[in-house]
Write a structure and sequence with these properties.
With about 375 residues, the protein is α/β, with parallel strands linked by helices. It is built from 11 helices and 15 strands. Helix 3 crosses helix 4 and helix 4 packs across helix 5. The chain is globular.
Amino acid sequence: MTVDSPAAGKTALHNVRVFDGYGLTQPTTVVIDGAVLGTDPGGAEPVDARGAVLLPGLIDAHVHLSGPESLDAFAAHGVTTALDMATWPAGQLTELRNRQGATDIRSAGPPIIGAGGMHAKMPGLAEAAVIRGPEEAEAMVAERVAAGSDYLKLVLEAPGDGGPDEATAKAVVAAAHAMNRRIVAHAASLGAYALALDVGVDFVTHVPGDGQLPAEHVRRMAAEGRVAIPTLVMMQGIATALGRLGFADCLATVASLHSRGVPILAGTDANSTPGVPFQPQYGASLHRELELLVTAGLPPAEALRAATILPAEHFGLTDRGVIAPGKRADLVLLDGNPLADIRATRRITAVWCAGTSITPAGR
């Protein structure tokens, strides 16, 4: 079924089964009233959804934006919010923010990295991103906040591998928290993950590619209230591109984190950065991430929570992630039941970004 609706009008979707975070409701009516969800279907254009499933707009909790075309790809695949985890130069973000009828973004702006890690070799990044000691932390964090960073990104490596040392990383975390900003740590190895825990970050993105996360670190993630963004699609892609074994350890780590009750967010590391060994596709890769989360042991409903309610909650996006009156009209209509088969998230028949109807991919 294809749905057309006015860009900023009023539409009443009748007979939709709404994903409420746990299951599907009985067929009901959802009103799109401009950019938000309303309650009164009076005067709305009626659409009979015939029992189709309606999801909140999907949220990809780890992307790297490249331009307006990346936003278009996200929206066409039902990703109505994208959390950017490092884009540089900072001015590139200006044209992507607050675009009407497009995927909404939040961003860390330029990351904070060490002088000797692989990220320092990326074109144009070292000059804006390298931190050389704890005394630079406060100024670097303040600069990013002043430029509009919604949270901070700290790239950690195993000790001795060229990332910020422990004292410097702790100073960055303290400065971010002092300015009321959450901080996300890149940690793609066992040593980096341990460092992320020791310095007190809020989110750890990626899972180790060199072995399963030890039980003690899983316990700490849960006990200390950390949030995981595993980016399984990226970890699988890198393992394949570099001919590495060990992706099974990534799945096992996610299973362990989930069993301990650690919040898990769906993120893909979608990017078009030159030199990166794998480039997950904008938008489409989030559906693959959901499938991998289910492979790792999350029930489909919890995989969907990882791309809706949970990222909204943990990143403080109080106006989205659920379908309720007053929330943003970010919606995805499916021809299929993702609770029975998570692959049904790919069968998109309609998307709305803040009430604006978007043509789904392939239509």
